[in-house]
Amino acid sequence: MFVLACEARKPAAETAAAPPAAEPAPAPPVQPIRPLVADTAAPFEQLPARLHSVAGRPVVRLDGQAYRVETAVQVDLSRPLPTGTTEPEADLADSLSRVLGYGYDAVYTIRLLDGGGKTRFATTLRKPDFAPAIGREAVAGYATSAPALLAFLPGFHALVFEVGFVMDGTDNISTALLLLDATTGRVRQVLPYGQWDDGDCANTLTTNGRALLTGSDLVRTDGRRVSLLRPGQQVAGTRWLNDQTLLVAYVGAYDRQGNRRPLRGPNAHLLNLDGRELGAFRLAGLEAEVGFTLRDQYLQQTRTYYLLDDEHRTLRLFPHEQPLRYRTLRLAQLPRFAPPQSASPCIRRAACHRFSTSIPAAALSATSRRRRCLRTDFPRRRCILRPVCPFRRRYMVKNSWLAGLLLVACGVGCGPSRHPVAAADDAAAATGPVAAADTALPFAQLPAEPVARTVQLAGQLCRVETDARVDARRPLMLRDSLAGQLAARELTQLKASGAGFDAVYTLRLRGADGREQFRTELRKADFTAAVGEELVTESLPAAPTFVGYLPRLHALAFTVWFQAYDTDWAAAALLLLDATTGQVRYLGLSQRAEDQPAANVLTPDGRTLLTRYAVLTAGRPPVELTVPNLQVAGTRLLNARAALVAYAPALDEQNQPLPLPRANALLLDLVDGRVLTRLHLGATATGYQHGRGLSYQYLHQTRTHYFFSPDDETLVLVPRERPTALRRLRLAALPKFRLPQRPAEVRFRLPAGLGSSLILYADTVSGDLRSQAAAPPQP
User: Fold this and answer.
1) DSSP string covering 614-675
2) CA pair distance 395, 388, nearest whole angstrom
3) SS3 (DSSP) at 377
4) Mean pLDDT: which of 139-143, 222-226, 367-371, 593-597 is highest?
5) Is there a contact between 394 and 341 (Cβ–Cβ < 8 Å)?
């Protein structure tokens, strides 16, 4: 095929008799060719994570019939096990440290029930059954939990469970993977599945489902198990390259002094399904914030795995069909990239693809299979790769430490295009509208203001009435300033206001006919345990505020405020009454005046209410979140089953902060009360007295909870679907925001201290973050 020059020649002479040339018809507008989205989904199915948002018993379908899976764990206090570890932290309240299994055996029961409730099998295991997988110390001394169903694997005809073990007071978590025969319940395999400092492991199946790769083993459907563990080494990451080839990377293990042994020679190995080595090379730059990571990405359009060695500045390309014929490219030798990213306007087969990756400071572009070559650039200490094709088509990609945009070009084209389409596309990208951040919480909140007093109960309309009156006949203990320094007239006025005297709080429910369904009366002494005797005594009585009806709890919710006479000292109590009898179901602290305002929220099923100081679940006793010598900095509901609770130091008699554990925050399972993990999360000052709060924002577009820890200037990112897979990022390591704001970015704020805030830009496609410090507001 030949390409003719588009430049018209000027004729040598022009005749005067020549008729005027007809005006050419206007060309139809050229529609810009939008870049395609890169397909980075690996062709291998990954084991699902433990589901925290699924209510009820899990159901699996075997041979076309639905079965329910029931799991339970029971501590056997008659069989102590030597732990060699310390006891659980004594400063935590029983409601938080009641994690079962420290130093004692436990019995794990797994049942498979058919639709009629008949047991198909029941399997029982004990703690020592998991010792070969995660070690005797972890099995004996760690807290345990009931097995969690992950999946049914048809190729193995097995049910897969995760069994977790947690060391109290730390984020040291070990998990075992349990495979049971789906027909008989017989134990097929017990494997190591996860450690707190684990590598970046696949936990995936081959496309035919006949082999499972974890961070420690390769398991086949024929029952063979190939261990990937090596003496003196730790697995840093595993990947399937195709159905017959896998990649395993190692780092040195720790010696007895706690130092990591250096590895010499190749530490990344290509293996087949029998564990036989097919190739090896040296791979560095595996360290992550916690544990290790492979900085890689798979691209379906080129059917290639891209693996970055960030330390040696090299990039390896593994073809999916023939991974042993991989190529190694040095980033420094790649041609430099120059924008814009565009697609050929004359050859429609040319396409541009962008995708996200965990490769830090690197980006990637590749041309079609006929010719693959890359271009690179290093502006502002960030690596950018671009493709070089015979026709000078240009595509740009960028990345940062968190994750970046990678742009991959596939196709052919003509000479260097000067068509205005590319410039128009770039201008549109720079000036086009940007998405607004959706920071609305996905959970129902109890209103802070009064709501309509009419509710519907059992199909009937009812009206809620509240009032409060002073009982001047029952004086309570007063401050000296109230009792001994007031004149008679002032003391009479004080009695009338109610400060220093008892009060009667009345709550009524009336039917549509005006008949009283119930009447509940409370006195100040009933609120003493919730908000404190001194504050209750010196407060002016205020009528309870009705804030809603909770159907799943079958309770009417009220808040009751107390404010000491002639001060700004105040607090609110939360009161739940049975909607039928008016009996007090719960009475506890809801908020203090110095607390950061935060709503009480309900789980999506409405069965659990999370307040700042307690977890209230239908059919269960309340779980108080207060801890001796600590104050609750804040709570946040993460999903239907998990919540975060953070603590700040309490003050001694001299108003000096008491010691605070480094891991001052925890993720709590709202269903069984387990502590899923502990972490550090610095609290923010509210600016009023010694109040504390949390720097927090939820972003719907990324389904992620963002927390800022001001004392160590880190960000904690908690995914809504899998809160235990949280990430901690150093603020100083984030790229700084520079205009323009990208179309996929949304902007939101996090409090960064008194009068200042941190502005973040989150890429809703890749998850990347850019930061911008906001100046404090002018007085």
Assistant:
1) EEEETTS--EE---TTEEEEEEEE-SSSEEEEEEEE-B-TTSPBPP--SS-EEEEETTT--E
2) 9
3) strand
4) 222-226
5) yes
Each residue's pLDDT tens digit, 376-400: 543 333 333 433 333 222 233 333 3
Domains of the chain: 33-196 (2.40.128.510), 295-432 (no CATH), 449-591 (2.40.128.510)
Order of all β-strands in the sheet with 714-719: 695-699, 704-709, 714-719, 727-730
Give dist(CA 192, CA 227) in Å, integer: 10
Residues 343, 350 contacting (CB under 8 angstroms) = yes
Q: Tell which residue, 216, 194, 272, 281, has the closest CA to residue 240.
A: 272
pLDDT of residue 636: 94
Rounded CA gap, 389 and 75, in Å?
A: 66
Q: Both ends of the chain: CA-CA distance in Å?
A: 71
Q: The tokens of 133 are what?
A: 């997988």
Distance set, CA 589 to CA 182, 595, 648, 774 (Å): 48, 12, 17, 35
pLDDT, one tens digit per residue, over 633-652 is 999 999 989 999 999 988 88
The CA distances from residue 279 to 192, 323, 474, 693, in Å, are 26, 10, 87, 53
pLDDT of 30 over the 50 cut: no
Tokens (6 digits) for 568:
């700004």
How many contiguous H segments (helices) and E segments (strands) does the chain have? 8, 53
User: Does residue 85 contact residue 132 with C-beta atoms inside 8 Å?
Assistant: no
Kindly list the distances between the CA atom of residue 109 and the CA atoms of 74, 85, 182, 183, 518, in Å, as whole numbers in the listed order.
8, 26, 15, 16, 45
3-state secondary structure of 220: strand
Q: Has this prediction a pTM greater than 0.70? A: no
pLDDT at 93: 35
**Structure tokens belonging to residue 699:** 């972003």
What torsion do the CA atoms of 461, 462, 463, 464 make, to the nearest 10 degrees? -140
